[in-house]
Design brief:
Arc Repressor Mutant, subunit A, 8 helices, globular, Rossmann fold, 4-stranded antiparallel sheet, transcription cis-regulatory region binding, DNA-binding, 5-stranded parallel sheet, alpha/beta
Length: 231
Amino acid sequence: MSLQKKILVVDDEQKIVDVVKSYLEHSGYEVYTALNGNQALAAFEKTEPTLIILDLMLPDISGEEICKNIRKKSGVPIIMLTARADEEDILKGLEIGADDYILKPFSPRQLVARVAAVLRRAHESPAPVVNVIELEDIVVDDMKHEVKKKEEIINLTPNEYKIFFTMLKYPNKTFTREELITMALGDDFEGFDRTVDTHIKNLRQKIEDDPRDPRYLQTVHGIGYRLFRED
């Protein structure tokens, strides 16, 4: 594994940071650490990590605020660490831009496996029929993993990109949530199907002119979603 894969671990408990750092380094990653929100934001700017492991309960800046701040600049994968097992709290974290979540307490070996799975999803895309797909004023370049709307780059998380690109390849097809998880996110995705709703909501905010009345990412009630494209 290449040491160029840099992981930023953010947690206010030194013992957790030390254990996670040790396991990740043993697996071949280059690891940077932060014990609070200000350190995390500074380390993000300095190291440009490949993935971030982010505790939501920090002493100065909440993990949610850090995630929102990073999402304004980058689509780097973020795994959130949380002691909140409630489904609504997890969905809220995914809604602000996290790619995956792990509940505390957790197994360090499980965390390393989830890091590998998230990185795999982030850097492997479904085999495209063409490299560039246009949808009116939206252009997706799969070679660059780049989405532009009216020539402006749209920052999508890896999971948002995979869902959007998968739907683009099959315009007007109605997808169930389970199909989107399998086709876009892969069999190693361990979330639940409501996660898809959150990703679609985020995509509408970024893609649609009016997210409350979406033109492209349409809901098919009782089934799932489709990407509308005029023939």
